[in-house]
Structures are given as C-alpha cells and as structure tokens.
Design a protein that fits this description.
Blueprint (H helix, E strand, L loop, with lengths): L1 H11 L3 E5 L4 E6 L9 E7 L2 E6 L18 E5 L11 E2 L10 E6 L5 E7 L16 E9 L2 E7 L9 E6 L5 E6 L9 E8 L2 E2 L3 E2 L10 E6 L4 E6 L9 E8 L2 E2 L3 E2 L10 E6 L5 E6 L6 E7 L8 E2 L6 E5 L11 E6 L5 E3 L2 E5 L4 E11 L5 E3 L4 E5 L4 E2 L6 E3 L3 E5 L3 E2 L5 E7 L5 E3 L2 E5 L4 E13 L5 E13 L2 H14 L8 E6 L5 H11 L4 E3 L13 H12 L3 E10 L7 H14 L5 H4 L10 E3 L6 E9 L1
Parallel strand pairs: 24-40, 33-40, 41-45, 43-44
Antiparallel strand pairs: 1-2, 2-23, 3-4, 4-5, 5-6, 7-8, 8-9, 9-10, 11-12, 12-13, 13-14, 13-15, 16-17, 17-18, 18-19, 18-20, 21-22, 22-23, 25-28, 26-27, 26-29, 29-30, 29-31, 32-35, 34-38, 36-37, 36-39, 39-40, 41-42, 43-45
Helix pairs in contact: 2-5
Length: about 625
C-alpha cells in the first residue's frame, strides 16, 4: 500500500517548472527515467547522454549484504534516441565493486574517468554502509571500449574521505571534496594541478568558498567557473547550489542559484554545457534523489553605455582678469611638482585620477611685485564609473584579438558573470576573451555584467559598448589610421630617420656604410594623406643596396613617436610603413633585421610633443 501511494503522489506532482528572474528564465523538467522509486544523482555529460550515480537494480552478479539500502553504481543513459531517453544501463561492469561506486567525472576526450569508491573493496560481504570504510577517488582509462587500469588517487587516506571529483575542461585541474584536517569544517573543496608526477598537492579553496558546513559536488565549468553544493552559505534550506569564478587566482563571492534550480530540499550535482544555457542537476525535492534537466534563455541587455575615454585635461582661467587688465601682469599657475604655466588662460593635463592642487600667482610685470597669491584650489579627479575593455584599437580579419575587462569601476557592484557580444549575441565568458572575426568592418563589442542583488533584492545588470574596427590587412589598417591623424590637422611632424652605428661593428664596415650613405646621415621621411611613404628616398634605397651586398650585416630599427594619446599608434604605423618600403624592394627582413617586430615596434615618448624619430642602428652578426 505504501508503494501505491508513492506512485499516485508522483503522478499528481508537476514535472515541469518555470520561473523568470531579472537576469534569466529557466525551464526545469525531471528526466523520465527518474521514477521516484530509486535515487539518481550527479549527472555528467558522456557520448550524447549522461553518466550518473544510482542505487537502481541492474543485472550485475555481484552481491551485497544490505537489500533495503542498495549500494550506488555508475549508470549511463543515452539521450540520442529520437523518441527520448533510452533505458539506463550499467556504465561498465569493470567499474563495479561490491561497494559504492560513484559519482564520477569524465575527461572531455572521453578516455579517462575519475570516480568515488569505498577504499576497501576486497571483502565482498563487508557492510557497504560501514562508516569506517572511507571514500576515495579512483581513475580508469578506456581501452578498446573497455574501462581498465583502475588506480587510486595518490592522496587517498583511509582516515578521511576524498569524493565527488570534477576535472576541468582542459584537464589541468581536478576538484574534489574532502574532510582532511586543516579545512574550515565538515567537507571542504580542494583542487590539484596536473604536473609531471600526476597531480600536485591538494589546495584548499579558502574561506570565501568553504564554510564550517559542507561543500561538496563541485563541477568545473568553462571560463574558470566552479559550481558546487553547500549547506553552509545559507539559502532555501539544506544543500543549495552556488557558483563562483576564479579571477587572477581569487574566487569571487559565491552566487546562490535561487531560481528553480534550488529548493528547500537538497539540491546538488549540477552539470552545465559550455554555452551555460542547459544542463542537469540533482534534487531531493520530490521525495527521492532525482535528476532534472534545465534550460536557460539567453541573457539580454536592453541598453549598453558607450565606454568613455577619460580625459584629464582642463582649461584654467582667471575670472577676475578684467579687474586688473589695466596693469601689465604676469599670471603664473603652479600645479606642483615644479610644473608652472603662464597666461590668463592655460591648459593642464593630469596623468590620471588622484588628488591635485593649483595656485594662481599674479605679479606686476614692471615692478615684479606680487599682486595676489590667490587661493589654493584642491580637487580630486576620478575615473568614469564604468567598465573598461582593454584591447588593441583595431584588429585584422581572421586574426585572434584579445579583450580584457579587468578594470571595473562600478560602485556597489560585485561582478558575478561576464557576458560578451562580438556581434552574434551575448554568451557567457571570462574576464579575458579572445575572438576571431571573419569579416572586415565596424563592430560594437558589448560587455554585459551580472552582479548580486541590490538593496531591493533585484539582480544587477550593466552593459558597456566599445567601437572596434576589423581590417583586411595591416596596410589597410595603417593607411586609414594614419590618414585620420593627418587629416585631423594635429600638426604631427613627419619622422626623422637617423642612421646610427653600434660599437661592435668594424671600422671597415662603418666607413663603407658611411661612404654609401653620404652625403646625408639623417633626413625627414614624408607620408602622403593615405599614410604611405610619398616618394622614393635615395638614402633608403642605398640602405637596401648595402644590406643586399652584406649578408652578415644586421640592423635594428627603433621608432619613437611623441605627443598625446591620439598619437600612441604612430610608432607602429611608421615602423610598418618602413618595412613595406623594404619589402617592395625584395629585401628579406628576417635575414637582416635584428629586432624587427611588425606592428609592435617602438615606444611612446612623452617628454616632447609633435615629433617622431626612426633610428636605424647597424651591427654585425
């Protein structure tokens, strides 16, 4: 009668759940093979289906002593069938002991499994519920379709448990739960790094993740994101599922998945795909441990703020100038650190955010007497409250470009998730992302940020946008970029080329090169309105001839541009234009250039404005 009541209860309870939050909408379904008669939990992806742990009966001939509380084994359910899920079957009889086997984690290539198991499995009739028989982690490899070579984890200890392993997508780290001494209490989460000896010593994830309660069932997702179950972080009750992201070696504050993923009962053993839109988890919400599937709608952002380039340049003006304009006066603005500007109106650029002060001193030009020392004005400059996307100013088609959201200047906003949109919709990512663009053109790179709840209990969302260009070639990039600077009328002087000789070059070579370069040792090089060398220079042509006649001779080109931030890419443009000049004359740069770095040569000098220098230094191998 008890069993009949259970079956009727399960039929009456809903099997589909939906809930919408500010950040995301979830649809949750219990998988059909979770019947409510057995326990099924801790799913992991494998061959289009899932491997999970269960105490359901199978056809194994291995016996055990407790018939009421059946032991756990690893099962596989194929989800490729067009009609739905196939009936679960034992994953492998080779992985079956007379005791508890599972949960497990399988590497991305499907060739290796790490799984939990009781340490002592020799006695077939030993009580599987004996608490002195601790859990350990074991490894097996699939060979010719059969799981073989079962080996224990090197840190297993008969006095403590090592369980619920999870391997990162790249296989370089394994997470697990253990009650070894030195933790925060209960079960803590640890990881080991892959090294030449197998795995490094366990590292505790620290107090931000571990609590005096129990942290178990880790799942290592993409982009350094870790999901886990905890009864010590608070939540709806018992075990709840949380996630955290490792950024620069530090873990972010755990985020409680307080949608339909969590319930007042135990929720644990989550696995999610690389797009973070679908997966499975375990829950005891319907009376037994069951596996649920979930699907999340993509996160969208309605508005994205354009990232502003902070400009800390200001104009200072004396409003009282009209009251003393009959006196020949000298206006001196003292900005500290020995910086003085003269004039009724002056411009001063500050190096960045910080506290500054300025004093105006007015003196009589004729007598030298001080008319007024003015008042010291103290002020503080701050960066705009926004997220900054660090990247090159442009990129090339079919070349990988890196974008970094390391600098986040947002008050009362703790980032929990990074979502990027490179033109094809928002997707989960990390702080640093790389993208390859297959078409040239203009792109708007969007960075979406999710945060914790605000004071009203609402999830926080922010979005920022950066204008970005992709070019077909370096030449196209250089021409357009340099042309824009020239057309802006900023007065950037065309660079001067200087020929220098290193000490290690022989006097004979030095004299020979000088004679070929005479009568000039330096000259200015001009660019047209497209950023291309506008004429043929006899000295550069003679340099090409020298290099062709002297295979052992090498040169080092250094490019310097000076000026404000809008000129920061001139060294790269000039350096590459010189390289094209040589390439067009069939000069092999690799054989002659000592330190040639296309599109990254040169440095920025800020001591003088509106100048440029290209230094060509000669040396011998």
């Amino acid at each position: 009668m008890r069993n009949l009541f259970r079956i009727l209860l399960i039929i009456l309870l809903p099997a589909v759940f939906t809930k919408k939050t500010v950040a995301q909408e979830y649809v949750v379904n219990r998988v059909p093979f979770s019947s409510g008669l057995n326990d099924e939990f801790s799913p992991v992806f494998y061959k289009g289906g899932i491997v999970f742990c269960s105490n359901m009966r199978d056809n194994s001939v291995i016996s055990y002593t407790d018939t009421e509380n059946r032991i756990f084994r690893l099962f596989y359910a194929d989800g490729n069938d067009s009609a739905g899920w196939e009936k679960p079957s034992l994953l492998s009889k080779e992985l079956v002991s007379g005791f508890n086997d599972g949960p497990g984690t399988i590497t991305n290539n499907g060739n290796t499994i790490y799984f939990s198991r009781n340490n002592y499995t020799v006695s077939r009739f030993r009580n599987s519920l004996d608490t002195s028989n601790r859990l350990g982690i074991f490894r097996a490899d699939v060979i010719s379709g059969v799981w073989r070579n079962i080996e224990p984890f090197k840190y297993n200890d008969p006095l403590y448990s090592f369980t619920t392993p999870s391997v990162t997508p790249d296989g370089t780290r394994i997470y697990f739960s253990s009650d070894i001494p030195g933790g925060a209490g209960g079960m803590d989460l640890y990881y080991c790094e892959s090294d030449d000896q197998g795995w490094s010593k366990p590292v505790n994830l620290g107090p931000l993740i571990n609590t005096p309660g129990n942290e178990t069932f880790p799942f290592a997702a993409a982009y350094n994101k870790l999901y886990f179950s905890s009864d010590g972080h608070g939540g709806y009750g018992k075990k709840d599922i949380f996630y955290s992201t490792e950024i620069n070696g530090e873990w972010s504050k755990p985020v409680h998945m307080d949608t339909l993923i969590n319930s007042p009962e135990d929720d644990f053993g989550i696995v999610i795909d690389s797009s973070f839109t679908s997966g499975y988890f375990s829950s005891h919400r319907m009376g037994t441990d069951d596996i649920f599937s979930f699907r999340a709608s993509p996160v969208e952002f309605s508005d994205c703020d354009t990232i502003k380039n902070d400009n800390f340049c200001f104009t200072f003006y004396d409003e009282l100038h009209h009251s003393i304009d009959t006196i020949p006066a000298v206006y001196t603005w003292d900005f500290g650190n020995g910086i003085h500007r003269h004039g009724v109106e002056v411009k001063q650029c500050f190096p960045g955010p910080g506290k500054y002060s300025v004093r105006l001193i007015i003196t009589d030009r004729v007598t030298g007497d001080t008319i007024t020392r003015g008042v010291v004005y103290e002020f503080e400059l701050q960066k705009s409250e926004q997220a900054f996307i660090s990247s090159p100013f442009a990129g090339l088609k079919d070349r990988t470009v890196s974008f970094d959201a390391e600098e986040i200047n947002l008050k009362s906003f703790n980032v929990t998730d990074y979502l990027w949109n490179f033109g094809n919709g928002f997707r989960q990512g990390n702080r640093v992302m790389s993208e390859k663009f297959t078409k040239a053109g203009r792109y708007y790179i969007r960075l979406g940020l999710l945060g914790g709840k605000d004071s009203l209990g609402r999830y926080q969302k922010k979005c920022f946008m950066k204008d970005f260009r992709i070019y077909n070639s370096f030449r196209e990039m250089e021409q357009e970029s340099l042309s824009s600077v020239i057309k802006a009328g900023q007065g950037v002087r065309n660079p001067e080329i200087r020929f220098l000789f290193m000490d290690d070059i022989s006097d004979r070579q030095r004299n020979r090169i000088k004679s070929m370069l005479e009568p000039v040792n330096s000259f200015n090089i001009s660019f047209d309105d497209k950023g291309i060398i506008s004429e043929s220079y006899s000295s550069l042509d003679r340099l090409v001839e020298i290099l062709k006649q002297n295979p052992a001779l090498r040169i080092d080109i250094s490019v310097y541009a000076t000026g404000e931030s809008q000129y920061e890419y001139l060294p790269q443009l000039w350096a590459n234009e010189v390289s094209y000049y040589f390439r067009e004359r069939n000069l092999n740069l690799d054989s002659h250039f000592n330190n040639w770095l296309p599109f990254s040569s040169g440095t920025q000098r800020k001591d003088v404005y509106n100048e440029g220098i290209i230094e060509i230094m000669f040396m011998e191998n």
